[in-house]
Amino acid sequence: MASITRSPARTVPAFTLFHPRNPRRVSRRFLGIPSAFLLDDYLPRYQLLTSVESSKKRSLAYAHLRECNLCPRKCGINRYETTGMCLIGAKTAKVNVIAPHRGEEPCIQGHHGSGSVFFSGCNLRCVFCQNHVGFILFHFSIICLTLFIQDIAHQRNGFDLTPQELAEWYIKLQQIGRVHNINLVTPEHVVPQVALSILDARDMGLRIPIIYNTSSFDSKDSLQLLDGLVDIYLPDFKVWKSSTSKRLLKAEDYTVTAMESITEMHRQVGDLSFTSDGIAKKGVLLRHLVMPGKEDEGMEIMRWLGENVSKDLYVHIMEQYHPDAHVGKKRRVARRVRFVDASGDESLQEEVRYAEINRAIRDEELSSVKEAAVKAGLWRFCEPHEGQFHL
Ligand code: SF4
């Protein structure tokens, strides 16, 4: 049975193109959704698994937990007895927030929000982590589970939930929150628990797409376990140079791993496709956060994506970088260093950590990455601040 059906192109709201000579200027074209990206209907991939395939996935999930090499850290430990670099064991996943979320791309959040599950812990150690401080609200209701301000990425803060309890939350998000999808945020280190939770939720009546929202520091094994369970991959491609990933992500092999992971994700689900209401149902939505002084790396990433993944890849070039986590914090033993501001005035200031990325990005840095994307042949871009669906 096919999971998707396609129909001829039809008239829908505009999609967005960056102007080739001025990427901040947006060209609007009122075209139909190309039939290759339009779905009449959609049945999530996990609904298509046979009972034999589901049982195999369950066995594989347990096996991975007994000797965990599920991410490129390759700790090789039994997570029923100890924890590896991600700090998370086997029986539960640690969760910081579960809630309908309206901070995602329009085609993901739709009208009712994306049913987001923010996992605690992470297998990267980004010094600029944009999730370093969690959420300001404390809230516990029938469809929200939220902790007070916490570092959700680098510490073991959060609620311990079994796969079955996670599945019950997915059902609440679907039935009461009426969300468009289940959005698993930073789940690389809890893929077995996530796989089991999706299978449990399927048996409980889940029928909305699953999003795997990842840093792309995934292993082939974990992506194989997810094949057939995930509908939309939402990978970041953060930096290009291994010297940068070593310094800023604490993972020298990040770029090679991200290239392999994104290629495999695209092999599984293809380019992003929508139903006629403008909601994404299947495919890859790639994010790149432009970093201060790293626009050359963003440009390389765009070139690689256009040449090696797909020119029809749906790309969100993000501009919301802000210094966070360890960036801009005082050193324990601080020296005073010469500082030149934008107007050329010099002063002596106390040295801070990761000073090279301790600022917002500049317009020209953003423009360079967008121009490189257009030059690479990419054309499907997300412009969320325009406040409507982009196809
Ligand atoms: S998922 Fe955690 S325990 Fe497993 S290899 Fe990665 S860091 Fe180590």
UniProtKB/TrEMBL annotation:
InterPro entries per the UniProt record, alphabetical: Aldolase_TIM, MJ0674-like, Pyrv-formate_lyase-activ_prd, rSAM
Cofactor annotation comment: Binds 1 [4Fe-4S] cluster. The cluster is coordinated with 3 cysteines and an exchangeable S-adenosyl-L-methionine.
Keyword Iron attached: yes
Cofactor(s) in the UniProt record: [4Fe-4S] cluster
One GO molecular-function entry: iron-sulfur cluster binding
Keywords recorded for this protein, A-Z: Iron, Iron-sulfur, Metal-binding, S-adenosyl-L-methionine
Domain of life: Eukaryota
Positions bound to [4Fe-4S] cluster: 122, 126, 129
Gene3D superfamilies according to UniProt: Aldolase class I
Protein name: Radical SAM core domain-containing protein
